[in-house]
Design brief:
Elements lengths: L5 E7 L3 H10 L6 E4 L16 E5 H9 L3 H5 L3 E3 L1 E6 L5 E5 H4 L5 E5 H14 L3 E4 L3 E7 L4 E7 L2 E12 L6 H6 L3 E17 L6 E7 L2 E7 L5 E8 L3 H6 L2 H12 L6 E4 L3 E10 L3 E2 L2 E3 L5 E2 L7 H21 L7 H28 L5 H16 L4 H8 L17
Parallel strand pairs: 1-2, 1-11, 2-8, 5-13, 11-19
Antiparallel strand pairs: 3-7, 4-7, 5-6, 9-10, 10-11, 12-15, 12-16, 12-17, 13-14, 14-15, 17-20, 18-19
Helix pairs in contact: 1-5, 1-9, 9-10
Bound molecules: flavin-adenine dinucleotide.
């Protein structure tokens, strides 16, 4: 039941990132409201569809610390090894969980299942007022608080909070209303996403293969299926979506090869146009922008949500520290601590992901030679792999308490 119009924290967007923030702060005594445009089980909910999400090992530790992992663990498939190669060329590199002394480099789960676990937990445990379906249509930062205008069932309601969090995705209206400058471009590529069943066991290996039309990722899933993320030029999208299953499997087989035998069954296909967006600032007054609203990445390295949940872990710690000390959670020095903590990593991961997307989509001979040499160097130079693996697992830089697996309280 909705009880109040006055909150410590209002979070706009109950996607993976907004819902995780609510759970991270649950039980800490804050008055929290979550405003989400879709009902929990609505078909059109954009965050919780059939795409496969590779959760980095570092994200697992955050889910552990916020008590979500036991429910998620039953639904995920671990990634024990990652195999990166340039299809038809000499370069290849491999990362192994045993070398990094972790049980898995990451875990694959569908966004839909992840959403079910997060929202179920949120509705059962968290002392939070959930407004859904409802939309934020505007807000005003009044210096000592933020007034939020929400539309629900055709009615407008005003709410007030000390701090507003924009977790409203790549097309964030909060970010736009703040007029925060962004770096943004389209890649002219789309990701075709589906799952396939190979005749050989996937062996918990994730494959990243670079092909002359763009990267292909194959991730181990439950029931011996593999999640496919196949990057194609925008002009090819419709043709690939229209293929019948046999023709699709044959086309994908030509792209990926026969390392896992033949692909015999395909799931439903969907396409996502790929773009990059990075907000040049993530804090304005009492408003913080997190997750895809602050950075939307090419899925080539599976870093989008993993970066977003690290925003969550850092913000939860900053807010909890201020609240526990009896301070104002939306004060400038509090939010500046968050900004300083996150800016460098957000920029580095966005730049690295963009660099990878460009490097590995470039068919020029000299570029291809360079990247094959790079892959070999990574495989054979002592000391080259470990930092890369730590980065992919989200374990570089100063780790918030939650990312070290330590609950806030
Ligand atoms: C093909 C593909 C594969 C990917 N694979 C991976 C992967 O393997 N690993 C990984 O880490 N990441 C991956 N990602 C990225 C990941 O999906 C995103 O980073 C993540 O979904 C972002 O979550 P979010 O909550 O920030 O935003 P969203 O998921 O966009 O959620 C925003 C929410 O805000 C709500 N909303 C919007 N406006 C309003 C409003 N005005 N009022 C109220 N509510 C509003 C929306 O309804 C939505 O629920 C992938 C992405 C794609 C496209």
């Amino acid at each position: 039941m909705n009880r109040s119009t006055d909150y410590d924290l209002i979070i706009v967007g109950g996607g993976m990132v907004g819902a995780s923030l609510v759970l991270a702060l649950a039980g800490r005594g804050l008055r929290v409201a979550l405003i989400e445009a879709y009902e929990a089980d609505a078909e059109g909910q954009p965050s919780y569809d059939d795409r496969a999400i590779a959760l980095a090992y570092g994200s697992r530790r955050i889910f552990d610390a916020i008590g979500v992992w036991p429910a998620l663990e039953r639904l995920v498939e671990p990634i024990h090894d990652i195999h990166v190669s340039d299809r038809g060329h000499f370069g290849a590199a491999r990362l192994h969980a045993v070398d990094e002394r972790v049980p898995a480099l990451g875990y694959v789960v569908t966004a839909r299942e992840l959403g079910r676990v997060l929202l179920d937990r949120l509705h059962r445990d968290a002392a939070v007022d959930v407004f859904a379906p409802a939309r934020v249509v505007g807000f005003e930062d009044r210096g000592d608080s933020v007034a939020v205008e929400m539309e629900r069932g055709g009615l407008m309601t005003s709410l007030r909070c000390r701090m507003l969090v924009a977790a409203d995705g790549g097309n964030s209206i909060i970010r736009e209303q703040l007029d925060v400058p962004v770096v943004r471009w389209q890649y002219g590529q789309s990701a075709i996403v589906t799952n396939v069943t190979p005749t050989r066991p996937h062996g918990n290996v994730a494959y990243e293969r670079f092909t002359d039309t763009g990267p292909v990722a194959l991730l181990p899933m439950t029931d011996q299926r593999c999640a496919v993320v196949w990057t194609v030029c925008d002009e090819q999208v419709e043709r690939v979506l229209q293929l019948d299953d046999d023709a699709f499997l044959a086309a994908f087989q030509r792209r990926f090869g026969y390392r896992l035998g033949r692909f015999v069954r395909a799931g439903r296909r969907s396409a996502y146009p790929l773009s990059l967006l990075r907000a040049r600032d993530s804090v304005r007054g009492r408003v913080v922008i997190i997750g895809n609203a602050a950075h939307t990445l090419h899925p080539i390295a599976g870093q989008g949500f993993n970066l977003g949940i690290r925003d969550v872990a850092a913000l939860a710690e900053v807010v909890d520290d201020a609240f526990s000390a009896g301070g104002d959670i939306g004060a400038a020095h509090v939010l500046d601590r968050y900004r300083r903590w996150r800016t460098t990593e957000q920029r580095n991961v966005a730049l690295a992901t963009d660099g990878l997307a460009r490097l590995f989509s470039n068919p020029l001979g000299i570029v291809r030679l360079g990247r094959n040499v790079g892959l070999l160097a990574m495989e054979f130079l002592p000391g080259a792999k470990h930092p890369l693996a730590r980065g992919a697992m989200g374990l570089l830089g100063r780790q918030p308490r939650l990312a070290r697996g330590v609950p806030l309280g």
